[in-house]
Design brief:
mainly alpha; 6 helices; 105 residues; single chain
Amino acid sequence: MNKKTLTKLEYNKIIDLLTEQASSFSGKELCKKLKPKLSIEEIQTAQEQTAAAFSRIVKKGRPSFGGCSPVSDSLKRLEIAGTLGSGELLRICRLLECAGRARRF
């Protein structure tokens, strides 16, 4: 899809509204990178996934991703055999707790 079409559809405004609804930094970043799907198969798959997620939310409520912080810098430091401070370890702990809640959801 070309930029002119995206501008006419006000795609950036839609993405901005979606980004505001994301509760985590990573989620916001993923929203900003979204591009329209072009193949009918991809569109149908995305619609099925959206319907399934909506049904789950109606039945069980919304999952919380609050408290999740980016830990990519800490992981890079570990890859080069660095050490982590207590704050970094706590951020990783909170991320793992969020992941556990998401998995149980």
